[in-house]
Amino acid sequence: MTTRNRKLEEDSEVWTHNSWDDVAWSPELASSADAVISAQLAVSPHLANPDAVLEVVQTPASQNWHKFYENHSRWFFKDRKWLSSEFPELFVADTVLEVGCGAGNTVFPLARENPTVMIHACDFAPSAVKLVREFREFDEQRMHVFQHDLSSPDQFEDISDNSIDVVVSIFVLSALDPAKLPIALEKIWRVLKPGGMLLFRDYGKYDMTQLRFKANRLIRPDLYVRGDGTAVHYFTEEEMVVLAAQTGFEMVSNVTDRRLLVNRHRKLTMYRIWVQSKLRKPIN
Ligand SMILES: C[S@@+](CC[C@H](N)C(=O)[O-])C[C@H]1O[C@@H](n2cnc3c(N)ncnc32)[C@H](O)[C@@H]1O
């Protein structure tokens, strides 16, 4: 997502470009995607074993991400150039906390464009924290980067309650066991100032990567484990409404962003689907 300006007005035009922004979604598309997911559910060997998620996802999760960042360079995730259009709140904030900062692909573009912001950023993978701290633009005067497991009950290191203007979470909460999401959201809520915002973007249900998973990767409905041992949960707007209400957030916006990718040569279409939400801690 960079400009979001290519709209598909006529179905007959679909093969004229490689991608289309903000595409429509129909009951027919939903039912064919549901059929794929039902087939996964029918044969997944893990659904019968509720401990599988704990064994596969939780204990070794940070080691799996740690290995990931040891094996990939800082540029594996591209700098988020769309940040200023989608999350302008970041660029007027005095204090930001990024959860699951990875290799710093949000931290550094934000620091460049908002030269006065204080950035706290955490990740539970030590190699990710190291990559950010060792990057040439790292500035310890305005960047506090630390290791932290969002799914643990521990509070964020050296961050006072009610002190942060904006918390940003980009493709991170999907990596948690969904049962742990309330723990993570409570902690975020606590450090936000009254009126502060949580900006969230993550994988949405029916994303093409969900439909491509083999059934043996499914460990709970909408939760999968990749070949490298990292987990991914696919969100819906409805789930975000429930999570926001449980934690005490006001929902400011909650949208599903769908982009159509086209393989013009093979005449194939695929949908990338993301959920993007803005949650506010009430003033009172
Ligand atoms: C897909 S990456 C996204 C990184 C970054 N937000 C970005 O947009 O480039 C997911 C990140 O979440 C981190 N992560 C996953 N589970 C976590 C947890 N329980 N606590 C803290 N970080 C976690 C991983 O180490 C990884 O850096």
UniProtKB/TrEMBL annotation:
Keywords: Methyltransferase, Transferase
Transmembrane segments: none
Pfam families: Methyltransf_12
Entry's EC annotation: 2.1.1.-
Domain Methyltransferase type, first and last residues per copy: 97-198
GO BP annotations, alphabetical order: tRNA C3-cytosine methylation
MF terms in GO: tRNA (cytidine-3-)-methyltransferase activity
Enzyme class: transferase
Keyword Nuclease (UniProt): no
Organism domain of life: Eukaryota
InterPro entries: Methyltransf_12, METTL2/6/8-like, SAM-dependent_MTases_sf
Physiological role: S-adenosyl-L-methionine-dependent methyltransferase.
Protein family: Belongs to the methyltransferase superfamily. METL family.
Protein name in the entry: tRNA N(3)-methylcytidine methyltransferase
Source organism of this protein record: Paramicrosporidium saccamoebae
